[in-house]
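Researcher: I'd like a candidate sequence for this fold, 127 residues long. If you have to choose between options at a position, lean toward the conservative one.
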């Protein structure tokens, strides 16, 4: 009887059954327009890992919407070391010769980190 109790206690406290906190914290840092090339500009966006350990490749996905339209969807994501940033680029291009045109963006990181409040960023860029 004593052994059964010890086995149950061991299993209940085993790290395999414990919910570990995710050791990385991804933050949507910045959205910017790339330099003009052949009359067009595209978006670049930065993601930072504020956590103490690396965010593994594929552990997050990144979405970028502009004026309500999904223009970029990154699913094959790279490792981000602790304290480091990575920059992604959208494939869609916007005509640069539209002075004053407003582009409203929304950057979303889909991940399982513990701090969801910094996984989104929205704003506006004027061409």
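Model: Candidate sequence:
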């Amino acid at each position: 009887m004593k052994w059964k109790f010890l086995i149950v206690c061991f299993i209940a406290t085993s790290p395999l059954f414990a919910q570990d906190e995710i050791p990385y914290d991804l933050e949507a840092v910045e959205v910017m327009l790339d330099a003009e090339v052949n009359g067009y500009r595209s978006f670049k966006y930065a993601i930072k890992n504020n956590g103490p350990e690396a965010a593994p490749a594929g552990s997050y996905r990144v979405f970028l919407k502009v004026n309500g339209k999904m223009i970029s969807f990154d699913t094959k994501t790279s490792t981000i070391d602790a304290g480091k940033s990575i920059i992604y680029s959208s494939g869609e291009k916007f005509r640069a010769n539209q002075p004053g045109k407003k582009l409203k963006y929304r950057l979303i990181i889909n991940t399982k980190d513990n701090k969801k409040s910094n996984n989104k960023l929205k704003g506006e860029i004027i061409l």
